[in-house]
Amino acid sequence: MDDDEFEDYDREVELALYREYRDVVSQFQYVVETERRFYLANEVEQVVREMGGDFYFELTLTDVWVWDVYRADRFVKSVKVLTFKDVNVEELGKKELKLPKELALDE
Questions:
Q1: Taking the model in full, what pTM does it have?
Q2: Residue 50 needs a FRET pair 20 to 30 A away by CA distance; which of 16, 77, 85, 106 works?
Q3: Amino acid 46: pLDDT
């Protein structure tokens, strides 16, 4: 496989993942972003834990879709995340998502 074929394959995989995201996002209430993953979830519990002079975040997500190209099954019952890094939790509104121009195939 040459570099162009690999880039085309990589782009197709990302596009398929985005399309799956677009198809399922309306089924979820929250978007959760950590330094390692991006999740859609219907329940999010976030607790700040202190340890000595430091702290970390403990997240418990329920009814989850995981943004990960390499996962065979992106739907999971629950996820527990422990992180010292920033966490972003957003409640989703109900609106249509559009495919970014850079992912379009008809250019």
A1: 0.76
A2: 77
A3: 96
